[in-house]
Every structure is written in structure tokens, then in C-alpha cells.
Amino acid sequence: MADTGENSALFPVFILSIIALPLVPYTILKILRATSKKEKSIHCDCSVCSRSGKYHESIFRRISKFSTCSNFTVLLLWVIVVFLVYSIKQSSREIEAFDPFSILGLEPGVSESVIKKAYRRLSIQYHPDKNPDPAANKYFVEYISKAYQALTDPVSRENFEKYGHPDGRQGFQMGIALPQFMLDFNGASSGILLIWILGGFVLLPMAFGVVYLSRASKYGGSYIRRETLATYFELVKPSLAPSKIMDVFIKAAEFMDIPVRRADDEPLQELFKLVKSELNLDGKNARQEQAKFWKQHPAIVKAELLIQAHLLRKADTFSSNLQQDYKHVLQLTPRLLEGLIKMATVPRTAKGHGWLRPAIGTVELSQCIIQAVPLSARKAGSGSSDGVASLLQLPHFSDAVITKIAKKVRTLQNLQDMTLQERAELLSDVAGLSATEVQDVEKVLELMPRATIEVTCETEGEEGIQEGDIVTVQAWVALRRANGLIKALPHAPYYPFSKGENFWFLLADANSNDVWFSESIKFMDEAAAITTASAITEAKMEASGANMEEIAAAVKDAVAKVKSGCRLVLGKIQAPQAGTYNLNSHLMCDTWIGCDTKTNLKLKILKRIRAGSRGGHVAEGVQEENDVEDEDDIEEDEEGDQSEYSEDEDEDEDEDEDDEADKKNNTNIKGFANGSARRKGRK
């Protein structure tokens, strides 16, 4: 075994190795990620968004971005590495190889007389009789005397010349690179090492694991508390009206952490008076409803009042404490709404379907929160299913401006269909907007997304769809903007945080209120979309028996489509019982109002005549007609859909009435199965 001094000297090397192994690759990865982010997020540059200041990075914001816990930890570890390297360099002399010539200050090969002269000179300097310093005595005994003996004694000199050591061949030495205090405690070395190993490599990781698992057990997907997801799952009902989505949304457990202060009582009372009309508490039992509202948990009451005030764009009236709570609530909102959508579309029915109406209502609530538009503005009117909400999201538009242009513009589509000159004349001459304000409106209109959907439903390797088949749903979603951009942040000056566009694809049956398939689509991550489209296309072509050249060409086409602004969605559903199903393909954006797209897809399920169940019940029968509809059946969607917000005054509608309302809202577009249903989004 190596001596304890040598073990202690090697301890910094051991620690340096343990730290450097993960630190170096992690640092390289962080640098590569930072340098790869060359493309900045393109956001709205209208004057309203510029004044909001959320896209302007001050020096303090840049410092705060850099001063993250991860970056601080990496920096601290590198400081430790530098210190260890310096410590190792300083102590390197202690573990240098034994060289008697260098110790005596001589050149190799000198005569014995020269060696004796050097020894006498050093003896005068370090001999205990001449120098009482203990360090000098130790150096004389361990180095000078040993070096003199190695060079004057014939056997020692021969051993040194042959083996590099005056004592001859040295055996292989093993040691533990740990300091002495870890190996010896009050003279008792047995068991100390075992204790350190047990504590450092067993107990400490277990403690970290217990803490991590205890925290992770509280959260589900998208960092949402499991308690919140369970509450949403319980409260979401199939006939949940859009105006009632807010009542479910605010029940999140995350909102319970909002501090409740006595100093906020009076400001919250003022807020209540301000947003009272939006709370739907003005019915026949107004007093009872108001009393019921205030009996809720104080944090829940505060959260709803803050959100309603945000929808009315009254956040600038908040006190400093309320401003802090307000930002905390809105920061939680996107992921909570995403969790609520998932709880609405999670399989609920016996057929494994989710519910359409609460899913649509949740996306519409998200649109209103991001654009700071009250839910009451979505009530059907002026020939638009979104009411005036889609116009209120435009910069410098107010109820007064909308009233002035009502004769010529009743919907957002009317405004988009105008020529640039017609729009400029209307907004400047009739609405009274300045040239700069008109330019702001044009910038936002150019930034609005327009979507196209191509949906196909087919049983792979088969001509028709029979009951029990596993049906592949494939949708190509293309995004276009008037300004030519694909990836961009929406115009949302009143939402205090940066929020990217998120689209929800819903394949649903409006008649039964069932969601057959749902998927979230993001256009910001092109690399991930290319990987997904390539893998799906390659797997599909291989299953069809294509050769390598055909597969490569198909993958190349898929990648080109993704780069041009398309995203591929793929899912599997099980074909229900035989019959004709009029499905709707919804593409809804969670940030823009009036940019949603919907198509109809007529799907015919035939009785089973093929062998095998394919996961479903085998039914004997004869195929009477093909399940592919002609493209001539595809008709254009009609304007004038009625929003469900117009029916919110009757809060006690039963499920049958809700389903009937959904039927009235359906468009008349028809698609086809084993083909494609395609529709362009609103311009």
C-alpha cells in the first residue's frame, strides 16, 4: 500500500476526475445549444407591442437570464476545477520521482569527489548540528543523505541506474486517493472508509432520490399538479358550456398558493364591481350567486378576479402586490389550460372518446386570455361566430371603432377580404385612426396565420375501412402568413409573457360530442418536425413495400413540405360499428381569435368480411358500397356560425339541448375517407 501522504496528495486528482467527467461534456452541450440559437423569435413589431416592453431585453433582464441556477452551478464547478488544478500543480513536487543528482544539484555522470563536495556543502546548510529547523532536518535525512548514499554506495548506485531507485526494484503499490482524515479518525481506521462509502454513495443519493420523488409525485405531465388534473377530470362534463370553462379552470391547486392578504380586501372588492358583469352573477338569484362566489377559497376568488380584470384590460389599475399575483396567475395559465384540454379529450366514453364541447371552450378561453378579450365579446353577433372578439384583438380597435365601421365590416373576414387601399380608407376616414395606427393594423393582419388541412383516414394495406380495424389518421397541416413567415410569436401586447402559437387538431363527431383523436401542433421547432415527418414517411413507405429509392424520394418530399411550413400529424383510432359518421376536423389556435379551421370528413365503416378482428369484434356481412366519397361532395364552409356564448344566459341546459346546439353550429363541408379533406383557414 502507498503511504498516507501520497494518498492525500492524489485526493485532488480523484476529485478533479469525478467533477470533470460530467462537467466538460455538459458545458460543451450548453455552449453548442447557445450558439445554435441564431434564429431569434420573430414577434409583432406594432407600436402597441413595442410599448408593452415584454420583447425589450434590458441589461437586468439579460443578467437574470444568465443568472440561472444551472449556469451558476456550472460556473461554481469550474471555479472548483481551477482551484484543484492549481492545488495539484503546487503539490506535484511531493510525488516527483526520486532523482539524487537533482537533489544534490549535480549533473548526471559526475565523479565521486564532486559528489562528496556537494554533500559537504549541503550538510553545512541542512545538517541538524548546523540548522535546528525540523524541516531542514527532515529534508537532510530523507533526501540529501539518501541521495548521497545512492551515488556513493556501489550497490545503491547500480540499483538506481538499473531500476531508478537506490533500494532496487520497487513493488507495485496501491492506495486510496482519499485524505488522511477520511481514513483515520481518532486512531481508529477500521470501518471509517466503509462509513464514507455508505454515506457518500448510498445514503446521499437515496436522500436526493427521496426528495426528488416526493416532489415529482405531486406533478403530472407538463409540470401540472396531479391534484389539479384530478380536479379537472372530475369537473369537466360533456355539456360544459364555454362560459363555464372558467369556473373549472380556476379550481387548479396551483392557484391555492397565491398569498391572501388583508390589504388586498378593498382592491378586490373594487375589482369585483368592475368585472361583475363578466361573472354571470346578475340573474334572478343574484344575491345568492354573489354570496356563493365569495364563499369560495380566497385564493380562487382572487385568481378569477385577476383573470377577469385582465380580460377587460384593467391590469394597469392593480397595486404592486396584486401585480405580482397577477403575473404569477398568467404565467401558470398556458400549461393549466393545456392540462384542461387534455382532460377534456382524454377517453371517457365506452368507445374511448373524449368530449368536444369542453375542449373547444377551453381553447377559446385560452384565446381570450392571450388576447385580453372578455368572454362576453364572443357572443354571436354581427354575422360572426366569434362576435366582436376577433376584431378587438387588433391594435387600436375598441367598441367605438367597431361601431363606426359596422356598416362595412361585421367580421374579421370582411376586413381581411378588403384590398389594402380600401382598408386604409375605411380605418382612416371612417374609424378615425392615424396613419401609424393603420400601419399597426396591417402588420397584425399580415402576422395572422392561415391554415390548410389535408386529412386522410385509411386502414393500412386494405382498400376499405371495416369495423374493428385500426384506422390510421394522417393530417398535413400547412401554415401561411401574408408576410411570408412561418415561425412567429402572436400579437399579444396585454399578455405579459412571451407565448408561442400552439394549434390543436381535433377529429371529432359533433353530433355525439365525441373527440376521436387529438394532437397538439407547434410550428416553432422545425428540426423536431422534420425528424417526425421523416420517420413516419419512411415507416409508411417500408410497410407498402417500396424500394430504397422510392423511400428516399418520399422522405425528401416530406422534409421539403415541413420546411415550407407544413406539419405532419399521425394517429391511430379503432373503427367503431358499421355506419356512416360525419366527423369534423378542427384546427384551433390557442393564441389567435378567428383563425380556426374546420372541415367535415364523412367516414363510412363497413361490416367486417375480412379474416381477423384487428382489435375489434368480427362481424359477418357483405360490403355493399365503397367507403370513399367523391371530391365533389366537398362544399365550402358557410359564414354565420353561431357561438355557444350566445346561449350562456340559460345556464341549466341539459345535454340534449347542448348537442342540438352543436348540430346547428356544424358547417356543411364534406370530406372523404381514404382520401383527403382539405380546407383553407380564414384569410
Automatic annotation (TrEMBL):
Annotated membrane topology:
Multi-pass membrane protein
Q: Where in the cell is it found?
A: Endoplasmic reticulum membrane
Outline the segment boundaries, as ranges, of region: Disordered: 614-683
One GO biological process term? post-translational protein targeting to endoplasmic reticulum membrane
Any GO MF annotation of the entry? RNA binding
Q: Which UniProt keywords apply?
A: Chaperone, Endoplasmic reticulum, Membrane, Protein transport, Transmembrane, Transmembrane helix, Transport
Q: Indicate, by first and last residue, each region the UniProt record lists as having compositional bias (Acidic residues).
A: 622-660
- Which positions, given as ranges, span the membrane? 12-32, 69-88, 191-213
GO cellular component terms, semicolon-separated = Sec62/Sec63 complex
Gene3D superfamilies, per this entry?
5' to 3' exonuclease, C-terminal subdomain (1.10.150.20), C2 domain (2.60.40.150), DnaJ domain (1.10.287.110), Sec63 N-terminal domain-like domain (1.10.3380.10)
Q: Where is the J domain?
A: 99-164
Task: Respond yes or no to whether keyword Chaperone is given for this record.
Answer: yes
Which CDD domains does the annotation name?
DnaJ
Per its record, how is this protein called by name?
A: J domain-containing protein
From which organism does this entry originate? Anisodus tanguticus
Q: What is the lineage of its organism?
A: Eukaryota, Viridiplantae, Streptophyta, Embryophyta, Tracheophyta
